[in-house]
Amino acid sequence: ALGNMRNGYRVSDYENAQASDGVAEAPMHGNAWEGNNRAIRRLLRKGWSANILDSTGESPLHGACSWGQATVVRTLLVSGADPNIQAIDTGYTPLHWACGWDGTLGIVRCLLKAGAKTDLSNASGDKPVDIAKKFGRKKTVDLLSRHVV
Question: Are 70 and 107 a contacting pair, CB within 8 Å?
Fold first, then answer.
């Protein structure tokens, strides 16, 4: 079976799961965090939504961005993932997550190309550029300041 065997995110374990089962987001989110693009592609082919939300309102794209999984980010975006979904508790978008990590400049570029909004504030009032500034991501700050909406 495809998926992360170590953490139990095997695709076959969840192929017949429904959103009402309370674990429906587990394979998409778990495989997104882990960077298991093969499993993500298989789940998408089986009809799973690239925009399925977990209990905090985060999508698999949030997880892939927060863990620097560029290949998964591209797969999800091509499959219709919304780069502007805001998490319920934090207000973070995938772009907020990508702006706080070293080595995610390529992910930030992908998100911007896919239409990620740079003017959305999280629950603390921070825009993605504010997150990049807080974490000293100068190249990300420069990219965001050059980006025209």
Answer: yes
Domain count, the chain: 1
CATH number at residue 64: 1.25.40.20
Instruction: State pLDDT tens for residues 63-85.
Output: 999 999 999 999 999 999 999 99
Residues in the chain: 149
Q: Determine the Cα–Cα distance for residues 123 and 3; give it in Å rounded to an integer.
A: 33
CA distance 40 to 97: 20
Smallest CA-to-CA distance from 91 within 51, 119, 133, 132 is with 119
Domain holding 130, by residue range, is: 3-146
What's the whole-model pTM score?
0.85
For residue 10, give the DSSP letter. E
Category of 3 on φ-ψ map: left (φ > 0), alpha (ψ -120 to 50) or beta: left
User: In 3D, which of 85, 76, 79 has the Cα closest to residue 56?
Assistant: 85
Helices 37-45, 70-78: crossing angle, 10 deg rounding: 20
